[in-house]
Amino acid sequence: MNKALYIEKLYSKLKDEVEFDEDVEALFTILKNMLKINPKKSMKYWVYLMEKYNLKELNHEIDFTPLTENYLLELLKYNDLEFILNLLQSLPNDNNIIIKKDFVNIFNKKSGIYQYIKKLIRKKEFTKEFEVLSFIINESKNDKWTFDTEVFLKNVIMIHLQFNKKDIHFLLKLTNLAKNDKDKALLQTLLIDYI
Fold this sequence. Notes:
It is a single chain. By secondary structure, the protein is mainly α. 70% of the residues lie in helices and 0% in strands. The chain contains twelve helices and no strands.
């Protein structure tokens, strides 16, 4: 049996009839597996779903997290964050805003962006992490996100400390991403015990 064809048939049967949480979970499983076979088609099918369904109206009835957060985490295995944020720009504005607010919610330590950063920290991909953090901070200036750079960087530093990844030189470099001297000093106080 051809797995790609099997997956496509399942997608065709479910894509226009999302009514329950289990429908979303099934579509996530389909798109996640399709990413391994044909990433472009998987993204095209995901965009179709994000254009078809109004998340603002349906979020109270259906949990779209598997598609709005978990799928993006899977997509980050194939593309960088900038690509994903650009992909979101192609969506209807309401869905774009909702997905960004959920995925890049710096006040929710379980949000997609923190999950992605944790993965980079575990793999000790500090150069990539620094690029991602810089990009997010710069992007937050251009977008209408609710964003606090100091809170974001504090949470990232705390993840490093919790994972016992205490490269002080790197963590001090992260504190320099803060907007002003006061925020830099606040972040640097987190590191006093490790210097």
